[in-house]
Amino acid sequence: MTNWPILAQSHDALRTAVAAVADWGAPTPCADWTAAQVFQHAAGDQIGFAAFLTGCPGPSYDPFAPSGVLDGEPRDLLEPALRLAAEAWAGVATSSEQVHVPVPPNDMPAGLGVGACALDAAVHAWDLARSAGAPSPVPTTLARDLLPVAQQIVEPLRAFGAYAPALPASSGDEVAALMRYLGRDPNWTA
User: In angstroms, rounded to a whole number, what is the distance separating the alpha carbons of residues 186 and 113?
Assistant: First the structure.
């Protein structure tokens, strides 16, 4: 469905993480948000990317103020959001120099835009997995591909509180390096 492997891998990571969650009220690495709220945020962001790319309706709720009340089976709620995002990106040529996305500066090359969409899915997959006490569903190769994306887009978002300050770098794997850059403690536990 997509010509963007980075997005397909991130969506698979999010599916894996959602399947691991048993307690949707559990705390997550996202301060003050439960697993249900992180899930709603992640799904809403994927719908938001699709809306920016295609003009289709955005999420029916504010992904930055998720209620934490799930009105359905999470896997059933997730799939339409992932499908919308994948179909929207499938319509974008890999050579496109400017695509409109919900991440400042809002217009960027397609590879960076899809990387931003994939980064969002992968990070929240990691959040949900950590909340569930499950191993990271983010493959090392995906984390390696997402770190340069993060380094290009995250600094302006820190000013809006979308990401905490980066944690000091340390030796470790690529997933830990990505999470530390995004201000997440790789050793976080509930």
Answer: 25
Return the amino acid letter for 65: A
Cis previous bond, 156, omega within 30: no
pLDDT the model gives residue 2: 58
**Alpha-carbon distance 135 to 119, whole Å?**
18
Residues 6+ apart with CB under 8 A from 127: 17, 28, 29, 30, 38, 184
* CA angle in degrees (0–180, nearest 5) for 17-48-33: 45
* From 38-47, 89-98, 135-144, 160-169, the region with the lowest mean pLDDT: 160-169
CA distances to 23, 59, 168 from 121, rounded to whole Å, are 20, 15, 23
- Look at phi and psi of residue 137 and say left if phi exceeds 0, alpha if psi is from -120 to 50, else beta: alpha
pLDDT value at residue 1:
47
